[in-house]
Amino acid sequence: MDEELTLLLILHTFAALCFLLYILISLYGSKSKVIPPSSRALIVIAHPDDEVMFFGPTIANLTRDHEMNVHLLVLSRGNFRGEGNLRKMELYKAAEALSISKDNITLLNYTKLQDNPKARWSEELVADIIYQYVESQDIGVILSFDRFGVSGHKNHSSIYNALLLLTSEERSQSFRSNNTRILVLNSVNILRKYSGVFDLPMSYALSPISFIASPKDWINIQKAMMCYGSQYVWFRKIYMIFSRYILINTYDILK
Fold first, then answer.
1. Digit-coded pLDDT (tens) for 3-41
2. Per the database entry, which stretches of residues form a coiled coil (predicted)?
3. Where are the domains of the chain?
């Protein structure tokens, strides 16, 4: 009985500390000094709704605290189930809820870049698209997926491979030598992925760059996801409640 009470006390203490840490970070800011203020940020995603389900805390912080001009490059319409046109309209509504201007959204529909969880996209093609966007829009920082793509979706990891290619010896010297930062979103194991606020201490301690959604941000992210009527099914509703990606984004520096 004493052991059970001790364990219960430890769990309650840990939970209280997690919520206290969350409140403090929400009030005093995230670890994101590596990003130059007042510059242009480009978030590169594979499908409409990726910006909400994975990058919500990042977008909330960049548009609010950093006063950054946030651009969204969406490489496909998410037409795997024939809902591409609908998801296009949903994207604009969700982006508005996240304070991203419609003028800053580029949504592609290339034949070679169609939504398919089992298909790898051409790294060369994706790299060229990103390079041209960065050069034309004077982008200061690129944010996208890491090699595991959070969910294991091959389209997600294809973007990482393209970013890796951009930093390689074979690519243009001008891109490798400029000041554009590349940050990749950390993928975590399934236990951490669905532990919500309880993953906060580990995430904040281990990651050099993090963005935390405030309670108001969290509500706005939920509202943005509700704009995706075609995608807002029961298992995504559960995801939106428990996923740590709705509360915290942590990054590694690729460049």
1. 667 777 777 677 777 777 777 777 766 666 567 666 799
2. none
3. 35-253
